[in-house]
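Fold this sequence, please.
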Amino acid sequence: MEKRQAEERWNALKEQIEYHSDRYYNQDAPEIEDHAFDMLMQEMKAIEKEFPELKTAQSPTQKVGGTAKREAGVLVRHNVPMLSLQDVFSKEEVFDFVEEMEKQLEEPEFVVEYKIDGLSLGLRYEDGDLKLAVTRGNGIEYGEDVTENAKVISDVVKKLTDPVPYLEIRGEVYMTNEAFAKVNERQELAEKRPFANPRNCAAGTLRQLDSRVTKERNLSLFIFNIQEARGAEFQTHTQGYEYLKKNKIKVIDDYQVCRTPQEVWDAILKIGENRGNLPYEIDGAVVKINDFAQRRRLGATSKVPRWAIAYKYPPEEKETTLLDVELSVGRTGRITPTAVFEPVRLCGTTVSRATLHNQDFIDELDIGIGDRIMVYKSGEIIPKIRRVLKEKRPEGTVRFRIPEFCPVCGAKTEREKDTADIKCVSSSCPAQLERHIINFVGRDAMDIKGFGTVYIEELVRLGYLKDIADIYDLQKHRETLIAEGIIGKEKNTDKLLGAIEKSKGNDAWQLLSGFGIPNVGKAAAKAIMKVFSDIPALGEASLEELTEVNDIGQVSAACICDFFNEEKNQTILKRLQENGVNMTAEKLPGGQLLEGLTFVITGTLPTLERKAAAAMVETQGGKVSASVSKKTSYVLAGENAGSKLTKAGELGIPVLDEAAFLQMFRE
């Protein structure tokens, strides 16, 4: 590779790595698998090895962890740096490390143990009492004080039974698979977005401002190192573990002491074979020198200790057979194919389904029913199909094709222009109707509390709901609904009917958002109803008038016109009016203090809900946007603001905290 090409590739890698590091360490919301990130880092290291002048102090290969965030807690200076580990990916690299240690040290012992997939935490004890818990932060200088949250973790020992004047230990906060499932179950019941994986959930939970939330989510902790001890002498890592266990401190499970390269490799393989049976996630195996004096002799670089490595396992994948392809129809008529295969166990759970996305994806895989396939978990969470084993294809197997008829209603299907989507063209398709009603009653539309998916499916199946207007006719069927127990007993039925009645008074933007017009969601509906006095006035608007509304383009405007011009929709609107559903835009009391200004609200604010802050902006003529751009006037940032805050800094956009935001209104 020429130097110019190397520089261009290095700069591209730097941008990608920094972006994904921010998503992983600071936002607890990674977008790519760990293995994919590791490969980007390995490529950068290879370039820097060939062109050493590219390796500077600002290179991602020389940095540890993320950034210490002031909004997550008081910043605390590290007494002992919380360094990263050098990653290796092959047997050869493991042998090279062990053999290099054997050259430098006399009869070294190695401890091989699980690398828990969680968030690093340091605990400091003075005279046996827990005084401070600190996150890794940037790993070198500062971390975040999370002491109050750490104290509600059951594995955190608050008082040592065999105290010393000073002890600092380091561990990994994690979440068991069972605890993670319960948290996501609560998230879904509260109609909140579920967490992507246990690591993200654990990291976000440890940084909570409310320790009651931390306690409720049931975090766990393993200790994997003694960072510093005063008043006690430990010769080895395992001796330190024995002292910690005597003090009821939970250390890493099933660690093994090894003396040869082959013993180390066998221990790594054993951990790899067992990782699917563990009640928590691991992302590798750690190999570390056992003797503390030998560790001190070897020292560390600016990023990693020289006496340890982390072996990263390749993504686990299993072979299985494709049994069927199920087709589901969404609210817009889009048909989604899902692969159904013989169950396999991956990363600790049994999986039997994976999305096939669309016909283009199926064609690219060249997959057919009966094929032998390789399945893996993206980010060790989401099942996906890696490839088809063509050499094992049964005779007569043909590539699957989405049929030309809807699997639910039998109507004709069509491929949408310029997309990979195949859609059912029937507006009366029951599957579309169910999802259309789910959207209509949802939080971003009419927000009818308690109107769950199960009720909707049953009411559609029994013919009570044929369109959204039928929702407001359910009161007429009250006695029958109670008698048949469709919604439940009298109390439940009346509660839902009451919520439906209450929704009639909603603002017109909520009704517009509930119509499910393509490209017209909550934000667009709000913008539109600031311009038009009511829904009938909107229905009479021309294409040109609609495109004059901020953020409404030609495509969205055309979709709105098509909706109001359709005879069936006109009938539905008339019935909604007759049932007393409000169609007038609410003119909120306020002024024009913020007219012409655009705000982006990000992170968790100390006292205000983000919805309340957005309403305050809108009542004063301002606009709230979901993304930061050159058109953004201010970013209102709270705890865990993440990449939007970073982008605001890059673009030079003023950033407000809640206090400054409220001061705007006082002035």
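The mean pLDDT is 87. The two ends are 60 Å apart (CA to CA).
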